[in-house]
Amino acid sequence: MIRENQNYLNRTQVLLDMIIVWIAFIVAYWLRFFVSGADPAMSMKDFLWPISFLVPFLSILYHIFDLYNPKRTKVLTSEIAQIIKANIIGDTFLVVGLFVVKMLDYSRVLLALFFIINIFFTCTMRIIIKGILRQYHSAGYHQKNCIIIGVNETANAFINKTIYNKHWGYNIFGLIDTELEKGNFNFLKYKMLGNIDNLEKVLEENPIDMIFIALETNEEKYLANILNICENSGIKTSIIPYYYRYIPAKPYMDDLDGLPVIDIRHVPLDNVFKSMLKRAFDICFALVAILITSPLLIFSAIMVKATSKGPIIFKQERVGLNRKTFYMYKFRSMKVQTAAEEKVQWTTKNDPRKTKWGTFMRKTSIDELPQFFNVLKGDMTVVGPRPERPYFVEKLREDIPRYMIKHQVRPGITGWAQVNGFRGDTSIEERIAHDLYYIENWSFFFDIKTILLTFVSGFVNKNAY
């Protein structure tokens, strides 16, 4: 019954999404040609037929982006991000199609309005539906009866999650113990249904929708038998691994010729296509940045030379991708130091080694501009964890858990930690936590967001000195 209701809901969702596309177009057309008073260069029919091709194409994209997955635990912000991505791709193909068929009179303002309105209407509708379903599930309706196999810390953690997230609609029907010998007892407030010897009978006689297996290390010997019974029952079964307590991030399942291997950390940039996409963007962005800032680069070089003795460009060894060292470029902002001093000294707020022009450059991040040449060389990326000197890397790897993971990706000019204020003399632990979040959740749009936040708040920073 639950599966039938979910299929009905999915079909309704698809239909609503298609209707919203047409409504969004009509509203955009009304705003463009009726509210603004502009004269359409084409007939209404000519404006409509490209949208008739876009509607099924968007529906396909929504399926590709997993927007019709009935998963109750899906995060709303992730769903909105997928809607935006699908619409960007769909509208891009629409624009390219209009160019190919030489419909050059198609209103660009209309397209822009349609793009914004369609995303707004679709997201609003999803928010409303999700809100209604959350209230519905929280009130105890349309719930899925679940049993948990295992009476231990892992089971306890799962139960607490379901209590806190009532909108998931998981009703804990009861628990099965692996070794229950003396009668029935309750675990928390939930009923014990027996042990694995009568698991098959429990599944046959009760209306169970989902099974969660939560075994500890000493209970692994029962897993094969439990899985066999659960699979034969035809009930959806999930495993909650006991080692989740030791894995600091969401794991990623890999496939080695049919052998499942769990990577304890999912790094999206391990994907060749995503890595190539990021590299192509880095090259284009660095070239444009160098071109646009060339007057400032020249002026800064002159000022460095005029205000202090020494080279214009300061090269310093840093640790980068795969723990390999490289020389990072900056405009020199300090008096010339010995190699030993450079390796082991942090920059402090009122550091006497800084020049007057160097102080200004550091405060405004102008000294970082030569790093776009590091990006072109492939040593760095535009967005990524900031690189550190080898001396401090060796010190911090002993004191900060998971510090070395940042070297699984290229270091960046700006990063998620920096735009969140963790720059200069701030918490290393928080900085690493933000770097790891970026590494595990990388996307092209995440990079764009970080760059935009850098423009808004990243250039002038109270912690930059």
Question: What is the CA-CA span between the terminal residues?
Answer: 63 Å
Helix content: 40-55%
Mean pLDDT: 84
The fraction of residues in strands falls at: 5-15%
Strand order of the largest sheet: 3-4-2-1-5-6
Parts with pLDDT < 50 across at least 5 consecutive residues:
none
Total tally of structural domains: 3
- Rg (CA only): 29 Å
Output the number of helix runs: 15
Helix-strand sequence? HHHHEHEEEHEHEEEHEEHHHEHEHHH
Pairing-aware structural class of the strands and helices?
alpha/beta
Q: Total number of β-strand segments?
A: 12
Overall, the morphology is flat
Largest sheet: 6 strands, mixed
Question: In brief, what are we looking at here?
Answer:
With 465 residues, this protein is an alpha/beta fold.
Describe the protein's topology.
Elements: H1 2-35, H2 44-64, H3 76-100, H4 108-138, E1 144-149, H5 153-164, E2 170-177, E3 186-187, E4 190-195, H6 199-205, E5 210-213, H7 223-233, E6 236-239, E7 252-256, E8 259-263, H8 272-307, E9 313-319, E10 325-331, H9 339-344, H10 356-364, H11 371-377, E11 381-383, H12 390-399, E12 412-414, H13 416-419, H14 428-440, H15 444-458
Helix pairs in contact: 1-2, 1-4, 2-3, 3-4, 6-7, 8-10, 8-11
Structure in words:
There is one protein chain. The chain is of the alpha/beta class and 465 residues long. The mean pLDDT is 84. It has three domains: 2-138, no CATH class; 144-246, 3-Layer(aba) Sandwich (Rossmann fold), CATH 3.40.50; 272-458, no CATH class. 26% of the residues are buried. Helix 7 (223-233) links the parallel strand 5 and strand 6. The chain has helices spanning 2-35, 44-64, 76-100, 108-138, 153-164, 199-205, 223-233, 272-307, 339-344, 356-364, 371-377, 390-399, 416-419, 428-440, 444-458; strands at residues 144-149, 170-177, 186-187, 190-195, 210-213, 236-239, 252-256, 259-263, 313-319, 325-331, 381-383, 412-414. It is built from 15 helices and twelve strands. This is Undecaprenyl-phosphate glucose phosphotransferase.
